[in-house]
Sequence to fold (273 residues):
Amino acid sequence: MATTMQPTTGETTKQLVNYRTDGGVAVIEMCDPPANTYTYEMNQQLDAAILRARMENDVYVILLTGAGDKFFSAGANIKMLSSVDPTFKYYFCLHANEMLLRLEHTPKLVIAAINGHCVGGGLEIAMAADIRIARKDAGKIGLPEVNLGVLPGTGGTQRLSRLVGKSKAIELMVTGNTFSFEEAQELGIINDIYERDGFMENMMEYAKQFCPPNKAAKAVGRIKRAVQTGWEIPMESALAVERENQQILFQSEDAKEGLAAYVEKRPAVFKAK
Fold:
């Protein structure tokens, strides 16, 4: 069931993020149709939803999407940005950076279900996910901020360059063009493209494969943490991170079950313990 993420200020605000769980998957939906552009208020609710999914023990995968069938998100709300001073804009971007880092640091798999156009800050959100799957022929993707006289300021310059390399990332950002999901897949920005019909149903099926009893969800989360942390540090330190995560898994019930199932030639039944 969808619930409202309440503001922290005590003021009543519009519901901008929907949250529900289904079979171990937390579905977080940005909800300000038609373009699902984000304001500080939406980001507060999105941040709260991320933390909620992180802390709920029966959530193993986070599925991030946009309301409707036209936009995943068109990024920051331009009307909001044009009405605030530079100091507010700076802290707005800082909070968005912190929020997306929380998404990356959460040891649970995050999947972006890109159901429509995914441009500007919408792509910056999607790039903080671990896996990105788009709906066929549902829209365009890109970072066109240069056309507004600014840069992709909520992680775009850094995450895109890590996905496609420095030179290609610079080219994509300075031209400011948007492009198809197929081209994005060729570049490595999109992992896969699903058919339009039944898109969210298929996304849920995909996400649930990483939940117990199908997969050792704790191992899935620790693989993510080893990669996300290790990518940014020297190899020797990264290997230490890998060993520490492996040691945690060696002590888990799921590791014992996985090894026993292999020896006994039977399917493993994982419990995320």
Notes: The chain has two domains: 3-208, 217-263.
